[in-house]
Amino acid sequence: MAAAKGVCLHHIARETSNVERLSNFYQQLLGFEKIESPKFGEFEVVWLRLPPVFSLHIIERNPNSKLPEGPWSSTSTEIVAANPESLSRAHHLCFAVSNYHEFVQTLKEREIKIFEKTQPDGKTKQVFFFDPDGNGLEVGSWEAPKE
């Protein structure tokens, strides 16, 4: 029996050297909405929401952090050019969309390097790619879960 009761995912945080660029990426590509963010004073933070309840917190990287930055520096002006094929089993966030083919076309138009995969059932399609900081993302053609 689990120690915690009533557990649900509340938010995921991404630390970045370029808060505006990373938050714009998630807003423009996946439809996150900017919501009221607390003012911490010493660092910038943007909170994004994907209706109805999922939140993504984009937080300015602590310049004194001993932790390594993401796989690629967010100071680059180009979309990450690494091979997304390695993401099919690696760490990534995954989203489902109802307009999979249109979404993939948008990625191609933005010249974001992708890796597509179709599951053995022939129905489920997945695309893997990176955000501007090199965080792995997957988008699939699954139906939205029923509440």
Automatic annotation (TrEMBL):
PROSITE patterns: VOC. Residues 8-142 form the VOC domain. InterPro entries: Glyas_Bleomycin-R_OHBP_Dase, Glyas_Fos-R_dOase_dom, VOC_core. It holds the Pfam family Glyoxalase. This is VOC domain-containing protein. It comes from Kingdonia uniflora. The lineage of its organism: Eukaryota, Viridiplantae, Streptophyta, Embryophyta, Tracheophyta.
